[in-house]
Amino acid sequence: MNILRLIRGGPPASRRFIFVITGLSGLGNAGLVGLINQAAEQSLLGQEISLQLLIVYLLTLAFFLVSNRTSLQHANRFVQARLEATRRRVVSKIRKVDLRTLERMGEGDVYLTVAQETDHLSQTLPLIIGAAQSAVLLLSLLAYVAVLSLVSFAVVTAFLALGIMVFLNRQKALTGYLTEVHVHEAGLIDNLSHFTLGFQEIRLNADKNDALFAHFSERTGELKEVVLRDGARWVTLLQFSNAFILLLVGVVVFVLPIFFGGYTDTIYKIMAVSVFAVGPMAAVTSVIRLIGRAEAGLGHVFDLERRLDEGLPAKTGKSPRENSPFRSFSSIELTKATFRYVDSEGMITFTAGPLNFSLNRGEIVFMTGGNGSGKSTVLKMLCGLYVPDSGLLTCDGVEIRKENRQEFREIFSAIFTDFHLFDRPFGLEHVEQEEVERLIERMELSDKVGFEKGRFTTRDLSTGQRKRLAMILCMLEDREVYIFDEWAADQDSHFRDVFYREMLPDFKARGKTVLAVTHDDRYWDCCDRRVSLDLGTIVPTGAA
Ligand SMILES: Nc1ncnc2c1ncn2[C@@H]1O[C@H](COP(=O)(O)OP(=O)(O)OP(=O)(O)O)[C@@H](O)[C@H]1O
């Protein structure tokens, strides 16, 4: 069970404490029932109820309330800590996973699982804990029945075991149906993102807007149907559970007397127990659906984690940048390297390579080629973001493998076409204010952006300006190799000139290596070497 798997990971001392205190609270509850039975017996026999019994009853009640409260509070704290640790662990895996593994996972699935499922679990698990406590109370009542009469205990236990078996069997199947709901929900989130990310496009085109809405309506309708189907199955199970409670009371009232010849007060005591048990039993059955939902939710979290584990790199030292032996590299080489994109049906949709390419320290290399010729793919292969399917990536003759890949990546700073602009220079917390201000001025952004309290004052900029801000971050990182994927394409003619005629020579003077994808043939004289790609392979070019 996934819930048990979650709990097993916690500190054993906390688990033991919760186990003991919950058991004590159950005993307290059984003690209360025993005392009530004793008082009822004294009344029936016409005796006066002793003050001593009342005091013991009140003390037991106080004990029960305190232990019950402590148990619930600790269990809740324990579960929330386990969830927080799980969330942290999964996100930590996401940040380290191989790029292709993450690209293959749908964004909707990742968000739904990490954000929504764990949030849902943090709300439902406390309710389940309450029900688990009720289950412990029921166990203690069962123990009390055993003290009263072993035959009754055997009959009730056999009946309970039968009910639990049927219930668990059905519940397992229903948890599977919830996976179907999750898949539909993830699809809906992906669909929903088109409304926000593609807002400009749909506001310019009413037909597109309507068609997207129609598609969304279809998906949300499908989700409703799946949820309804699933809900109907849960109603059946809930009904079974409620009927089961009444059947159990029926067994106590109608079946147990068969085992007791003549009058005995034991049967009345057991009936009193069954009346006390109805509340906790209802508490347990009322969370049936939540248990199923939590099981399925945790199942998705653990499944996402398993898929992430498959794309996780080998562990690296504490600071791969500090420890990187590649910072003093002389050349990086791809030898007969290939990389294939494979779709969800296993079909190869594009192959880059086999190609041979080398990048030498201090060089400025331009990469050209038509759209879809594989330039970005080759860049990602060269900096270790994509792992070649065949052939080699080497740095000064050292093969880049799982063990050293992160240390190798640390020599690169890149601005890809689909770059993400962070709102602060993460990883550069100790950067000098003056240095950032100098770069903002150099990038001619002083009238738009400031740098205050360790973050840029705005990211609401034009595309070209956002790229300049990304360039500032790149320069602050001060790494050995810069990769620019059509960086200049969104710059005005003045700043394009600044990039090619001032910044690139400046990088070269500082010993940096630059690999830039460009279509600006006016500036081809600004590089040391030019390579051209076509259909994923390198084709001969003229001089730089
Ligand atoms: N994440 C991806 N998943 C699957 N296929 C991809 C992915 N990225 C690119 N491709 C495929 O790989 C091919 C090469 O894409 P790539 O982005 O490397 O080309 P490019 O030369 O950089 O193009 P452009 O000049 O348009 O940016 C494309 O035809 C595309 O179909």
UniProtKB/TrEMBL annotation:
Membrane topology note = Multi-pass membrane protein
Membrane-spanning parts: 17-37, 49-67, 125-144, 150-168, 243-264, 270-291
> Can you give the residue ranges of the ABC transmembrane type-1 domain?
17-293
Q: Which top-level group of life is the source organism from?
A: Bacteria
Q: Which SMART domains match?
A: AAA
User: What's the protein called, per UniProt?
Assistant: Cyclic peptide export ABC transporter
Q: Where in the cell is it found?
A: Cell membrane
Q: Mind listing the UniProt keywords for this protein, alphabetically?
A: ATP-binding, Membrane, Nucleotide-binding, Transmembrane, Transmembrane helix, Transport
Provide the ABC transporter domain boundaries.
332-544
Pfam families linked to this entry:
ABC_tran (PF00005)
